[in-house]
Amino acid sequence: MKNIFDLHSDILKDYKLYIDSFINIADDEIREKVNIEFDSGNLYPDPLIQFNPSFESGGQVEDLVNSGILVKNFNNIFYDDTNKSWSIYKHQAEAIKKGNEGKGFIVTSGTGSGKSLTYISTIFNRLFKNPNKPGIKAIIVYPLNALINSQYLALKTFEDNYRKRTGEDLPFNFRKYTGQEKQIDRDSMIANPPDILLTNYMMLELLMVRKGDEGLRNSFLENIEYLVYDELHVYKGRQGADVSLLNRRIKAAAKNKNIICIGTSATMASGTIDVQKATVAKVACDFFDDNFSSNDVIVESLAYSTKDRIPSINELKIAVTNEINKESKDALLDNSLAIWLERTVAITEDGKNKIRNKPKSLQKIAERLSSEIDVSAAICESKIIEILTWAEKINIESAGSKKKDTVLPFKLHQFISQTGYVY
Fold first, then answer.
1. What are φ and ψ of residue 232, in 5° steps?
2. Sorting pLDDT into bands at 50, 70 and 90, what band is 44?
3. Are both 279 and 323 inside the same structural domain?
4. Is the pTM of this model over 0.90?
5. In terms of domains, do 243 and 139 share one?
6. Could you tell me the residue range of the domain that residue 227 belongs to?
């Protein structure tokens, strides 16, 4: 199996062949100019490596149950194949605690950090405590139907887990309303509104105005307690203004004047943690027309996955110039180059807080390493690729075992410029 760097190289070669196949320039001077531009890298600059750091542990779901934050029913939902309670991250635990204090919150963290679990747990907990009240109590808005479908399948899995343990159905239900449902399903939903409605902002707009949806509209305006927006960073510019006005209309028409507003997002701001929180809180205030302070913004808590030590320059030089010991995962965790990549390239520290670094090109990373240990950039680049492909192999094995203990997981971002004209 090819590693991501070889695959990337093959894709770019194929793309260049594709571009070359329909460029037929008769003029020698223009053709030479075009070839120079192709070879310069302007069409496809160096790819960027973006690391997904590990997250600090927040214990297990059963810890929140034992402390009385979540009801006991959660032990019958969030368990793995070995019947062990799910492990959660620190930012998940913080958000769930805040949500179950009856407060809105915004979770901003990276991909794969379990942001959706924060609002699902908050809503489920409320519905477990008040199981028999009919009507739509929660609306969860997603920017894409694909995300709705994915979340719906996740909720079905939670439902199946609960049924396996208890032999009973959940005491509440959920439905999706994307505009792609058959009329018979839509009529059924209008006749018996769910407790949780998964939708997109366009359908939510139609729910507010369309005569045929009056039954659903009345249901959530009478009963809504939670208004959730997933992927909050999507709503910007004119679209963001339109959706924020929709939120204001819902809140003005709803019987409940204290709707709990929740948002999740990828990183929405740069700077220190305090600056990030203040910026996100201001965006949330404008978007939801609600009061959010920096304390209502939960950011990711990062953790190092490699060994807790700082390698010396000599140790780093030995790691780059010698053969890599690939006997075990522990060898990777203790590898000086792996530690350097995580603590220098993947993560930076802002006082006591750890912040993920911006993506960098492989060339820039190799040049920095080269300047620190006085080894050629070419050798450094080759060894970095070797370390990352080794980590990739171990992470694939961990994923197959459904473990979260990844080491230096990363993405390769390649930007390709649009072709233009030559004058």
1. -60, -30
2. confident
3. no
4. no
5. yes
6. 57-300
